[in-house]
Amino acid sequence: MTVRNSVTPRAATDVSNYDIETDVLVVGYGAAGASAAFEAARTGARVRVLDRAGGAGGASAMSGGEIYLGGGTPIQLACGFDDTPEDMAAFLTAALGPSADPAKIAEYSSGSVEHFQWLVDRGVPFKPSMWDAPTWVPPTDDGLMWLGENSWPFTELAKPAPRGHRPTAKDFGGNLLMECLAGAAEKVGAETLFDTYVTRLVVADDRTVVGAVARRYGREITIRALRGVVLTTGGFVDNDAMLADHAPQLLGHTKVSAGTDDGSGIRMAQALGASVRHMGAGQVGMSLIPGLAARGMVVNARGQRFMNEDTYPGRIGQAALYRQNMGGAWAGGDTAVWVIVDETGFEDVPAPQRWGVQPTHVAETPEELERLAGLPAGSLVDTIARYNEFAVHGTDLDLHKAQRWLRPLTPPLAAIDVKAGIRPPSESGDRRGTGASVFTLGGLHTDLDGHVLDHDGYPIGGLFAAGRAANGLHGFGYISGTSLGDGTFFGRRAGTAAARNL
Ligand SMILES: Cc1cc2nc3c(=O)[nH]c(=O)nc-3n(C[C@H](O)[C@H](O)[C@H](O)COP(=O)(O)OP(=O)(O)OC[C@H]3O[C@@H](n4cnc5c(N)ncnc54)[C@H](O)[C@@H]3O)c2cc1C
């Protein structure tokens, strides 16, 4: 039996003295924690935020900063897009999966314009301009982008509107977002303590959470929380034992985190009887350049297309990992996914937006490319011929890629192995990875106010959660911006509810 770091709760009767007393204790100072701390502190409650790291940030500060917002935000209107909460909810229901929480999606969609304004009021800037092409992160400071809403099947389910809102920053905006949120929380009085790793919760006889135990520079400290504890500790992608238990497909891939996603908050709550949801789900950022994929095709190890290439690229990644058995320790192998593109498509994406990606193989014929990539005889040849026929007629009968991106592929042709990676090569020139960068979407089961629920569906007294420590909005699917989106939105709810929990 492998014994893991103990998260067994400490009985309040066993704590003779508390080092810190507060009303609301927030554990983890990323976007969810900062949002919870702000709302709790502005009610006048005493708020203490602890983080195991040396400062605020977590994965939130490393992130692209994209936040999924809609329903008619000022940025959408300025860019010429009407939107409604109903269309936003219809898209999210389809994109996040049928088992996503409908009440959370409805609440998030109807509250989205207000949440946009809340972010602006905290100092987060958004520019009213649009980036209009598939990408992970626009190379500009445009404030709005599509995240698959204009791709099939969503075009048939809801009126398309772009909802990817980005703080005004070139490239990654997460750091700016965190500066604004943490600055706002501290301005209204939230106090912080860093280098402090919370290890277990303190519980009263009736199972109500009344505090926490933490480790700080080798010493144990105890914190009393009179109104509640909010767990905003992030997900569990850095904990391989938890991945093996719950999400083995994610094992062995590049971890999208600050290195602190050890699932400790989830485990501490589970030790009290908390229930969890969708622990097998993960975001899969496949190592491809979305602009190249949209202009060409993505094929599996059998040389077949499997997803419309103009959609949100994380959907291509999820399909590749979960349904095409792409690489990673779980698959035990090196299953390839290829981006196939012609010279026109390659050159059409400006060099800086190709992030240094080069063709793995170049060929003068589909037959030669198929042979070089080691694909089964006739497979890629047939796929290209069928695709080109669709392109000539302007309709992708198989996967419904939008006509805008359909063009016959003409030699010379290139095949790009996604395992070649999209980060700059190391000094040795080696860029190979597993082809995917992942984080977890499963977590604690919470209600609309962030109460952590037990296995009977009842709130555990004094215990709240938000961000990736919770399951939040997600079913099995993911759309960029929904992590920072639900973390900040439901983080606010959790902070407010904890402060009112007298
Ligand atoms: C490169 C990159 C790009 C991304 N881009 C986007 C994007 O554009 N849009 C989007 O929505 N998402 C994006 N994500 C994902 C997103 O950033 C995270 O899912 C999100 O920030 C999680 O927020 P959080 O508040 O739950 O956790 P975090 O921001 O990770 O904060 C958790 C904090 O808890 C602390 N902690 C953990 N355990 C303990 C403990 N036991 N005791 C004390 N402290 C603890 C950690 O140190 C950390 O500071 C990206 C992620 C990365 C890495």
TrEMBL record:
Residues in FAD-dependent oxidoreductase 2 FAD-binding domain copies: 23-484
Higher taxonomy: Bacteria, Bacillati, Actinomycetota, Actinomycetes, Mycobacteriales
Organism listed in the record: Nocardia uniformis
NCBIfam families: PRK07121.1-3
GO molecular function: steroid dehydrogenase activity, acting on the CH-CH group of donors
Name of the protein in question: FAD-dependent oxidoreductase
Entry keyword set: FAD, Flavoprotein, Oxidoreductase
Keyword Flavoprotein: yes
Pfam families per the UniProt record, alphabetical: FAD_binding_2 (PF00890)
Source domain of life: Bacteria
